[in-house]
Amino acid sequence: MRVLVAGGAGYIGSHMVRALAAAGHEPVVFDNLATGHRAAVAPGVALVEGDLLDRVALRACLAAQAPEAVMHFSARSLVAESLVDPALYYTNNVAGTLNLLQAMRAAGVGRFVFSSTAALFGEPETIPIPDDAPTRPINPYGTSKWMVEQILADCDRAYDLRYVSLRYFNAAGAAIDGSIGEDHRPETHLIPLLLQAALGRRRSISVFGTDYPTGDGTCVRDYIHVEDLCTAHLLALDYLAAAGESRTYNLGNGRGFSVREVIDAAQRITGDAIPVEVAPRRPGDPAVLVADSARIRADLGWEPAYPELDTIVAHAWQWHRTHPQGFATVVPAAGDDLRVRPPT
Q1: In terms of C-beta distances under 8 Å and separation of at least 24 residues, what long-range contacts does 214-220 make, across chains too?
Q2: Catalytic residue from among 141, 223, 239, 249
Q3: Annotated catalytic, 141?
Q4: Domains and CATH numbers, the chain
């Protein structure tokens, strides 16, 4: 199946492109490369440079590529940034997605896999969070994804669009072979920040809040390996190809790890003591987000292959230690010191 991957040069999208190709599909990437990387796109995969806000380019791409399905990973995703500039999030995440859906309708494409988020649950009433939990986002990022889910439901009823919306918890890790991984500019995710500190590329990492109502006072999150995310997307694609009805699923391991537990895991894997500074809570951060993914397990047979935190961190470490500057890294020769440290 030919699949258009919007945001296929980004972190999750680039892993998805490789998973699609490995499964025998034909991925085509549509990406403006604002936060993605050309080097992250698998060799031999077509890359169409364009922006979801450019309706003409988007419709031209769909008309030329004639995909049978679309996967959508193009979104702004920083909670703090969304609080400072909500209009940016509603423009990019909502208006951009609406442009994509309209272009799909014009091209006759009726299968859609959407990258949603646990952020739309806000402060959850129940842990782990069931699929049918109330959605009450507490930041514009979560609200933007919630809005798209409402749009998708309306498009299903009106246009016969079939979709699967996957509500991610905390995507983490890297390709098993170490070939691609996280490279955000700036980086905001906890695991890569810790690994950058272990490499000496930052002086310390900040722990935002130590007074949450959790076991050790730090936030608790459900970390899911990026390869397990890709498996869920492949299953969703197969489900839609078999004429499945539209569905929304939580996607997480069902286990929560505190910030301090993740720090401990990073120190175990790297063998380095990582400097930590305590900072005030960030607005918009719930204390605990852990998934109940029973529905996707039952419906699609999804099971995470890499649920252990140490495994997730170890795979991420393999990428970071061999690519200390992300996709800008010149891979050193065998035997060279991979721990590239900046001058003091």
Answers
A1: 214/258, 214/287, 214/288, 215/258, 216/258, 216/260, 216/261, 218/258, 218/259, 218/260, 219/258, 219/259, 219/285, 219/286, 219/287, 219/288, 220/256, 220/257, 220/258, 220/259, 220/287, 220/288, 220/289, 220/290
A2: 141
A3: yes
A4: 2-172+224-251 (3.40.50.720), 190-220+254-326 (3.90.25.10)
